[in-house]
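Lab channel / #folding
Pinned by the channel admin:
"Please post every new chain as: sequence first, then the structure tokens as a reply. Keep commentary short and put observations after the output so the thread stays searchable."

First post following the new format, from NK:
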Amino acid sequence: MCCPLLVEDLRTLRLRLRERRRALSPRAQRRHAREVARRLCTSLLIQRSCRIAVYLSEDGELDLGPLIARARLYGKHIFLPVLRARPERALWFCEHRLGEPLRENRFGIAEPELRRRPPVPPWGLDLILMPLVGFDARGNRLGMGGGFYDRTLAYLQRRAHWRRPVLLGVAHECQRLERLDQRPWDIPLNGVITEARIYWSGKGPSDSAQ
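Reply from TO:
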């Protein structure tokens, strides 16, 4: 049995995986972004999702720009994460329409202005596309360590099954690990999409569309 990773091990692992994705050339980054957009936009998951939460890439994360552009053409509503005042380190999601300005939050990350329209909780979404640092094929996700998504989705731990949102991690294939141990507060992903394939975990929403 694999031993649980220590905190220092996780820090080292995060650094190594972030270096891997940063090392990808701009050409490879663009190719991966196009392939993920193509693969996801031809899936039933996107076709059956109306409200889709995305992220704005940074630090070598896989760029969702091509996917967002195609999803808008299909009439999908695009949402971005917004920091909540309370509880701390948790998220709301606010719809962002083409051409609307964004503002920087306290971490320097762009997000929609709440005065334009009210935010929605995660259970008001059909699909959440989540950034990550590392993942395994069983749906375990290694994030940046801030716990924002874990706190936001903690309510799902009280549910054996849920219909939405579908939780799909997004990553480069080079971020895949053989195994990540699930911690008590981790919310398992329904799957992870990379430029190579979609790894369906068999966890998460009971009626996810593949």
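NK: Residues 1-7, 206-210 have pLDDT under 50 and may be disordered.
TO: also worth noting, The two ends are 31 Å apart (CA to CA).
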